[in-house]
Each structure stands twice: as C-alpha cells, then as structure tokens.
Amino acid sequence: MKLRAITCLLIMACTFPSSTDTNTVTTPDRATFPPVADLLGKRCGTLDCHGSAYRNLRVYGSLGLRLAPTDRPLSKGMTTPQEYDADFQSIVGLEPEIMTEVVTQGGASPDRLTFVRKARGTENHKGGSLMQAGDPEDACITSWLAGKTDVAVCTSATASAF
Amino acid sequence: MRRIALFFSLLACDPVHSKEVSALPGEVPGVPHGPTHRPGQPCLLCHSGEFSVAGTVFADPNSVTAANGVSVSLLDSQGSSFVATTNEAGNFFVRKDEWEPIYPMKVSITSNGVTTPMTANVGRDGACASCHVDPVGPSSPGHVYVSIDGGTP
User: Fold this and answer.
1) Distance from C-alpha of B102 to C-alpha of B124, rounded to nearest angstrom
2) By C-alpha distance, which of B131, B149, B128 is closest to B141?
C-alpha cells in the first residue's frame, strides 16, 4: 500500500503539462477599461501601494509608477495606452480561471475575485477597505466585470475619490 | 513595557530591516543624531515607533539645499489635518502622539505664500523618502522640493 502510494506520488511528480497545452481565458472588455484603470490608479496605484514595482498586482499610471523609462510619476501627464495594457494584464492575469467564470456569468458574484474582496476589505488587505459593495467605485469595477462598463460612474467616482 | 522591549528585540533581529538601514548613507560628521540628521532619508525606517509622518523638503529639484520654514500640510481621509514645519535641515516630523493619519492622506507644502499640492495621495507610508528618492525615474519623482516652476513637490 505504502509502496503504491509512493509510486503514485513519484509518477505525479514527474508529470508535466504539455508545452502545447492551452487554456482559454475570457477577460472583461479592454476597450472600456481606461476609466476603470483611472480609478484604480488613483485609489490603488500610489507609489507606496500598488504603484510599487515590487508588488505582484502592479498598477501603472500618470499618478504613480510609469512604464516608459522616460516618463515620470506625478507628472500630470496622461496614462499611456501601454500603461492601460499593463494594468489590464495585471488585473486579468491575477486569477484568470476565476475571472473567466465571473465574466462569462455576466459579472455575477464578483467577490469571487481576490482583488474585489481586497478592495472591499472583506479579505485582509494592508491598504484597508477602499470601497463598499454597491458604492460608485465598486460599481465602476463590477460594471466592467459585467461587460457593461459604466463610464459615467467611473469618471465621477475617480473625480470624487479622496 | 515588556512588549515594547520585545518589539525592539525582534526589530533588531530582522535581517531585512537591518539590511535596509545599513544601505542608507551614514551620519554626516559634525551633525548630531537628532532632528537635523540624515535629511532625505526614509525617516520611518528607524523612527516608525515615534513618528507617523516625516520627511525632508529641499529648495529645488537639482540640489539638496535644505528648505527651512516650509509648512507641510497633511489632510487624512477622515478630514483630520496637521501642519508641520521644516527645520534648518529641511526635515519635518510628526510625532505619533500629536497626530496619526487614517490613510489615504493628502499633502501640500507652502513656502513664501505659495502652496503646492502633491498630485497623488499618500497611500499608507508616512516616510516621504520611501517614494521620493533620487534619481528621478519611472518609479520616483525625485526628492521633495519647493516648487519653483509650478511642478510637483
């Protein structure tokens, strides 16, 4: 019994996914992401939080970390399309399988995503609770996850955020 | 009291913290250990037990000439505010028993009647030099300075 178990574990340990294996990931809309990214940049992307290059969820933007070597933080410039791309990849790449489930189910139960729980403060987050379920900032993010980005809410939430 | 002693004992044994501290430039000869020492360094790396917010303001973006008498205005997310003033080294600090922000926090500096707000909020780190490090680059706006051209401090 013990030998079988050890053999089984050894076989499992030597089993690798094929280099040709692929997973299909469904992401929220990239085209309507910029107003969501602007909110994330203001609320999450300061240089001492997710605007740090040392964070696993890295947020780029004009207020914080810059992508191009020649761009500067706090420069009052615009977030570049490349930075929006990087932010998009940061968010959708965190939990691609769960993101796929949320998006294909029309944004249902977005709190399955860690970044939503962290932002709401329902999961331990060093930055604390930044938004509550249903408030304008949360609505901006969840509308994007649901495929119906509410640009007006995002813009307003970004402007009024502390 | 025992807890404090234990905290400092643990801190002393933290190799990451020790490495960060030893990586800082050392004391300048002739400058006593006190309010004017180590301008431009991340104060809270060593003083996190006593200060909530601390930093240095320089006169301009291209030198490390101290800016004395600059008002540093802090406003936290709950509407509580505090104003600190830089000393002859450009340093300012806020003792924890005076004021502690609930982040995020807005910062502005006022010198010669001109107030310049920081473009972004401070998310959670009260040490200016944790982010404002030289040289200027994609991840740092450089040291804090009195605005001379409408730029950011």
Assistant:
1) 9
2) B131
Contact A94, A116 (CB under 8 A): no
A76/B152 Cβ within 8 A: yes
pLDDT at B148: 60
Report ipTM (2 d.p.): 0.82
CB B153 within 8 A of CB B146: yes
> Which domain range does residue B68 map to?
2-25+35-130
The domain spanning residue B16 has which CATH number?
A: 2.60.40.10
pLDDT-flagged residues of chain B (< 50): 150-153
Q: Which residues of A make CB contacts under 8 Å with B?
A: 42, 44, 46-49, 51-53, 63-76, 126-128, 162
- Checking if the pLDDT of A144 tops 50, the result is yes
Nearest CB partner across the interface for A48, out of B77, B106, B123: B123
Q: Residue B81: which H helix or E strand, with range?
A: strand B81-85
Q: Please report, to the nearest 10 degrees, the dihedral formed by the alpha carbons of residues B49, B51, B53, B55 taken in order.
A: -110
Residue B2: the pLDDT is 66
Structural domain total, chain B: 1
Please give the pLDDT value at position A22.
84
Kindly report the pTM of this predicted structure: 0.84
Q: Is omega for the bond preceding B42 within 30 degrees of 0, making it cis?
A: no
Least confident of A10-14, A62-66, B125-129: A10-14
How far is A50 from chain B, CA to nearest CA, in Å? Answer: 9
Answer for the pair A66, A16: CB distance below 8 angstroms, yes or no. no
